[in-house]
Amino acid sequence: MSGSAVSNNNRLSAHIPKHFMTVLVICIVLLGVCVLASLVLGSRPIRFHELIDGLFHPDVDSYGANVVRKRISRTVFSLCCGAALGVSGALMQAVTRNPIADPSILGVNTGASLFVVCGIAFLNISSANQYIWLALAGAAITAVFVYGIGSMGRGGATPIKLVLAGAATSAALASLVSAIMIPRSYVMDQFRFWQVGSVGSASWDAIATFSPFLIVGILGGFLTAPALNALALGDDAATGLGVRTGTLRLIAALAGVLLCGATTALAGPIGFVGLLSTHVMRLILGPDLRFVIPMSAISGAIILTVSDVCGRLIGSPGELEVGVVTAFLGAPILILLAMRSKVRSL
């Protein structure tokens, strides 16, 4: 990726997409509504004065104020994870030129899960810092493996071949996860709640651990967006515009895996957020990744936070894990996308 490539690509798509500012304002308003809903809704609804006490009066030690303070970290964590998954989905779709690529569909989440469960079973790990590095290694190895398998044969890495390779790999890795857990009850107890995907155990320590990976991954996505636009024209055209396609794919893929792996390590394998957020933004704004990637971050944060609130309301007085809710939302979207005849490549 070079400066000439970026400038050439900017000339190709220099205009701001239609309705971009309108969509941005609507998304920001929705994000604010989601934050408010996440703070006040749940098994224990919060009154207005309790919300004010929890936000602005740290000396107040009432039950409602303490609930708000607990929900603040959960809300921030949910926003961060949703943004990470949204950007990760956009990058994976761009790198593979596959409009239905997503960390869960390509098996990346399951690869991260396998490495985490191996760490719990064989290395006795228990901290978020250890989870992250194992999850990143598992996500990276799985992503390379799935892309390699999907690239074999005639036509290279077509969307359908990548999805099939991802589904097969995910099924195989999930079987390995079960084989490791079943004879080890202590591993199952530690792993089963994490495996579903949840932001309920959020803490400021987890957010601090996650933040460097989030910042680096999102910056990588933003910086590669102009050149990824050129890559959508095909490798030959992108090379003619000065893009080093191999280096570009490596950087963008690393950013996507970094975001997905870190999220999976701390929140579990939450699926379909990247697929749904990126697809909606691409339908509204068009294919320009300079706008799709940042808007996917915002829409991903909205989707995951809404799903978390819905899980709390549906499962009250307990809660339904957010990974279950996003699966219910994302599975019909995936089916509709797969049925469309134009799902070939980006």
From TrEMBL:
SUPFAM superfamilies: ABC transporter involved in vitamin B12 uptake, BtuC. The chain crosses the membrane at residues 20-41, 76-94, 106-125, 132-150, 162-182, 203-228, 248-277, 289-314, 320-339. It is a multi-pass membrane protein. Its main location: membrane. GO terms for biological process: siderophore-iron import into cell. It comes from the Bacteria. One of its GO terms (cellular component) is plasma membrane. GO terms for molecular function: transmembrane transporter activity. It is found in: Cell membrane. Keywords: Cell membrane, Membrane, Transmembrane, Transmembrane helix, Transport. Belongs to the binding-protein-dependent transport system permease family. FecCD subfamily. This is Iron ABC transporter permease. It comes from Paenibacillus hemerocallicola.
